[in-house]
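Internal tracking record. Fields below are filled automatically when a chain is submitted to the structure queue. Please do not edit lines marked as system-generated. If the sequence contains nonstandard residues, flag them in the REMARKS field before resubmitting.
Queue: standard
Priority: normal
Entity type: single polypeptide chain
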Amino acid sequence: MSTQDVRKDIADDVKTEAVKITPEVQKEAPDGMAFMDRIPFPACLVGPDDSVKYANQLMSSVFTYKNIEDTNFFALTGVRRSELIDAVEGPDPVFPKIERNDSFFELHTDSDATTDGDMVVYFYDVTEREELRIHYNEERICLAYISIDNYDELMSSITEDSKMAVPTEVDRILRKWAEKYNGSLESTSEDTYVFTLFRRDAEQIIDTKFEILDRIRNIEAKIDFPVSISIGMGFDGETMEEEAELAEAALELAMGRGGDQAVVKDRDRTKYYGGKLQSMEKNNKGKSRIIAHALRQLIKDSGNVLIMGHKWPDMDSFGSAIGAYKIARYYDKEAEIVIDEYNEALQEIMYYAHERENYPVISSEKALEICDRNTLVIVVDTHRPGRTACPELMDIVEKVVVIDHHRLSEDAIENPVLSYVESYASSTSELMTEIIQYTANKRIIKKFDAEALLAGITVDSNSFSIKTGVRTFEAAAWLRRAGADTTEVKRFFQMEISTFQMRADAIAHAEYTEDGVAYAITEGYSADAQVINAQVADQLLNVKGVRASFAAGKNNNNKTVVSGRSLGGINVQVILERFNGGGHLNSAGAQVDEPPEEVIGQIKEVISEYVEEQNRKKEKEKAEAGE
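SYSTEM-GENERATED OUTPUT FOLLOWS
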């Protein structure tokens, strides 16, 4: 309804309904206010100072209390004068609404209202319309796709007598859950389901933070890893097709982030729930073989190859870039590695790569000059375009390959021709090592290349102590046979005395709390803040009783760099996602603008909430077990 239509309706109502106002009511009105009582619906006069100068008697249907005169209008309604004026003057007005006295009212004013004069505000009863809208929204259809995580590995790991029992139990729990929320659950394959339900019921599920994840995880399967599921829910799609696309994208995110979680995706936002388990290593290397074959063909079909990791690369980013470079050169393609800036942690290995081995490392500016639409860009150790060394390349080239081991984020590179994002892997260097094994019939890497890849695995696995599976050791063993010298790898990690002292000082002054969390702050500014904080957080985990650690410090760009580490009991990735960071369950990071002391204080508050929520869930599980 347009502003003109609304004003016409008001005028018509005034003419036809004014007779209902009795003379007695008119006489009670102060001088000059009688016209207010002739208005056939609630209205009040608001002065320039935002106070209510007069309210007609019908205002009692809006506010149960009397004598609202002299009350601040904004305090009374939560609506500012400027909002009303903007609604009247706007080409497509959206009038503010309030809910009072079990009814909904839409607020209007006259077209000639000003910010510095008296203003008549009309309260238009739109309860019937709003209730209809609410009912419509509540009964909109929502779709959720459900997948049993790592189904093939699950079935190959459980005993013969459990091969039917475990999937049957998963199916029973899911169907009982669907029935509780009045939904329809349909099995589309042995490990996937489609869940259809009303929006009001979907919102109830979201309010429980998808407690079904915990119930599935508690299934006794008599294997080394728990049973888990991934859920992708679509919300607010204009059509069923769009709803299905949102649900499919959400499920892909949930699975790409390691499973055991639910992702709710609408057209504007994405929310994550669960994600308590470490990503399970896949025993089958078939996917690595397929990726290697596809990558080989893409390289052959391209004019040249550009390889880049994330800004301020670490050892894993650089090592995997070296691996990609060697694959491209094996197929006789011109290839360059794009790096603009790097910190002290890469100085030694960069010297070897650039000065001794003569690897072509170029700047972003140079990369933009030599690329064209036939260039293949290989992105390693990140899948977020904004974090790459040269985001502008994405707008020029048509073919982008992504190889990464981080949990999939919402802002991932769109439509890559090849994507290999496996959050179970210790590092991107591990994934690249496997790809190299399937790329050619002979070894294509030299001693230095093997050491760079092994250094990448060593850093991201914290010397083979975190996220280290059988395939991690197999990759390291293959690199050792290819000539990697572990002594040389250790030399890559040597640091300056000042850096060592800064790290030692942060560890010495660390704070330890009763909930098993350690906090440290590195003083001063350092270009190597990211590396130093990661090392500090790693070292703090060696303290007895510490379950998780956080270290924060300023880099040379005046940004606070935060590193979080965990032994598994506390999900640091979930914690640091609150600060627009990310990573894995036991290793995550973030960069923020606030000073380190303030960030550590905020993390403590989030940890407190997290621990309280975990304790409530444990108590609930005990109570349910007792029943």
